[in-house]
Batch of 4 targets.
Target 1
Amino acid sequence: MNSDDPQSVLDALLLRCHETRTSFGDGHVVWRTWGEADPVRPTLVLLHGGSGAWNHWVRTIPVFEANYRIIAPDLPGCGDSDLPPQPIDAESLASILSDGLDKVVPDDRAFDLVSFSFGGLLSGLVARAQARRILSLTIVGSPILGLNRDGPANDLTSVPPGLSQQEAAPIYRSNLEKLMVRNPERIDDLAMTMHMANMARVRLRSRGIARRSKMADTLRDLPCRMNFIFGEGDVTLWPDLAGIRDYVQENHPDSTVHVIPEAGHWVQYESPEAFNTLLMRVLAE
């Protein structure tokens, strides 16, 4: 495969990582680590979005792995991680992740946490459980005031079972265009390869959990500084960003809402240069 082949891009990243499994009950969470573990190199933990996997960060990991030890799990019930037993809620998922972090990031080593979309819903709970060592929490594209039941983010088409990949691909592409990006041209072969593979493996129904949970409540009085990054055209924040800005200004006055123009929900993929530059800056502050 050549370097432009989507699978070769993913395979090259996987060849550079170290894979670890942590247990919960009868299941396991799969964690992938890039970069050497040493006392000087800072640790960066990345949580992906709903129906995704570690590859939501495919354009972030290569930029940061030279200077950070990057740790990215597949959330329980997503990617290669097992689905926990019922009942499943934000609290139980966050507890599984925090317990796993105690094994994957040992010795009370401090870390920064960056979470995308549904990962953000869990990250406030994880940050609270990891209060003794978390340095910062950066929320990316998470509807912190709740996921609306109407608006463009809900206008998705179900993929009927039994379709071939060729038949299902146009539906998956349409859903990505509606939900994840502002510019449809950013949905390339790599995005399609990842999304279709992720959807084939996902068992966690994250939207139901997101609708039952109040993310804003989990962010109150956290033991770390916070950053917020959104794409200007993020439809999960429908109808606009004004309520997000007002919430942050009132409840987290030491934090800032950073908005990346001409980008949608999956801002770290759609505008990787702008996102990575901004994330580097907020982590260093």
Target 2
Amino acid sequence: MDIIWLGHGSFRIETGDHVLLIDPWLTGNPVLPENQHDAAVAGGTHILLTHTHFDHVVDVLPLAKKLGVPVVGQYDLMGFWGETEGIETVGFNKGGTVDLGGVQVSMVPASHSSTFSTPDGLRTGGTEVGFMIRAEGKTVYVSGDTDIMADMDWMGDYYQPDVGILSAGGHFTMDMKGTAYAAKRYFDFKTVIPCHYKTFPILEQSAQDLIDGLPGVAVIEPEIMKAITV
């Protein structure tokens, strides 16, 4: 399984015949060069969406239509898009699991918000979530944008993820120290990949506090478009 960072909270996960695009943000992404946009999404088979803030959702509908692939996400929003946007969707909800043809995706809680701008002001786009992705005998926890939360206790115990892709930039989500605390208290990760950082000056620029806080865990600072094999 290869995990490829597209910057910010966006990832490309390659496993078997599947290419999962997690919150793929291309338009206006300051750390993903425009000349790499096509390569970032090439061969995508599914788009997974954690919530509807612009830096996660702005390219989802255009990509779904361009690539002809389903969007996988929270039931209410997927139902709306399925009716109004002419795209294929896979809608489910927290506690549910869907099989994408050999890759199982479970939806888990997050603690954040999920709104998007319209001409009539902000609207709510379903609820914020995370995912547990099971493939190749591994479980990858994609936290989405979240704070530390007590739900992580049962999530770690029940799903026992090996790999954590964790928001860690602070200001809008957990910071590096908070992420280290959550990972150490609630999970038994072999590998942790921080995200949602370095994109803007307001966010954390280094993962050193996370590395220092998780001795014995492989904390890998991702590089744009460089595969991390797990």
Target 3
Amino acid sequence: MKKLSQWIAVGALCAGAGMVGAQTLPEPSNVLQLSSSGTVEVTQDLLVMTLAATREGSDAAAVQTQLQQVLDAALTAAKRQAQPGQLDVRTGNFGIYPRNNKDGKVTGWQGRAELVLQGRDFDRITRTAAQINGMPVSQTGFALSREARAKVEGQAQSEAIANFQAKAQSLAQAFGFQRYTVREVSVNSNDMGYAPRMAMMAKGAMAEDAQIPVEAGKSQVVVNVSGSVQMVK
């Protein structure tokens, strides 16, 4: 029992010493929190064009079959023009929905199928869209490709870091310090583009063979740098 009591006493003493040590750690002082950013504007290089077909009828299976036939034909035609990165073809939304009367009773069915053309070759995409029968253009918009974003992200990052350093030095001197050292810092980026900016088109507004004129807008690649610095005399 005596030895056990001694161990308990020693353990309590060590724990107490640890608490005292933790309490005597100095609080951070002369630490400055700040943030900065770098922005590069770049032309959007990705066209996203959605073609759509709608069908209605009293039988859901018949409506679905009609949409599948239109979509299959459109896919076959679009794939002939496909080229990776320049014109990629994929299906969009496909759905069949009941049509109800005012009493909630199902009186028929309506469905919609979409085909999406996407890529950097605007001329190829618009020509292909104009050649597809039965699926007029429903939406069109622009975005920034990963390749284009990667090219300017480094430039925006360098600008953000330079702004952070200049801001830290200026503020340190304003507070009466000669210089600073970085304590911690985080860097993150985002695309402030209109991604993709969609413009709805009125049903029947485009003739079957008419090529839609398109013009890309701008996106902003923004890199943010934030953190804290230690101001030094």
Target 4
Amino acid sequence: MSKGSVRIAATFERLQAQGRKALIPYVTAGDPYADVTPALMRALAEGGADVIELGVPFSDPMADGPVIQQAAERALSRGIGMPQVLEMVREFRRGDDATPVVLMGYANPVERYGVERFVADAQAAGVDGVLIVDYPPEECEAFAALLQSAGMDPIFLLAPTSTEARMAHVGRIASGYVYYVSLKGVTGAGHLDTGAVAAMVPRIRAHVSVPVGVGFGIRDAASARAVGEVADAVVIGSRLVQLLQERPKDEVAAAGRQFMAEIRAALDGVAQGAHA
């Protein structure tokens, strides 16, 4: 059995024992201000985040909608690249050794940095999982194994268009959790169809043994609660990024903490009998 992340496994085990759902916010490293990210990450954890997805800025984020694209552009304009992202994780770890951190991004920055160097430096910084949007599972079994041997989880996306064969392949190599993209298209777009999500999650569970998180289109307490009824984790990104970009620097952390607390309260209201 491959190792993967101890922090992520422990987090989901604890939540399952409590009958609670994981809350996973996404923020872009270096946005809305270059030096606010570690404090913001701590505030999100204090507000009730269970895992934090930290976006690695990239110039061509094809799966992301305008809100996260613009966040990446702002971060890149401030000189935020992979070395700075890893330093942010190191700084976060100085104050929080429990909350899992997942880096989310694209293949280009990882390959430019050097794959083996990236895995070694991410492990040393305290990263728990890596989600590379444009690495299909069929093409990155070696990368997945490298991550797991370093105590990190390869996290994979599944979509409404994913075939049974793709789900089965992800089920064989994924660890930590899988991330179901509940909408066709880009982040932050469209209307969340919770009925379609409720129909899809059991199909995914037939192929994967790790928890299933759902993201894209979750904007508030009500949509988070609806998704929490059927999924193991709720991922919320565009709405949070949008909320924070409107804040002055000294209010960013508090705004993130308050938004997390609202979503956390809604999720904890999910019936204990729902699948956990």
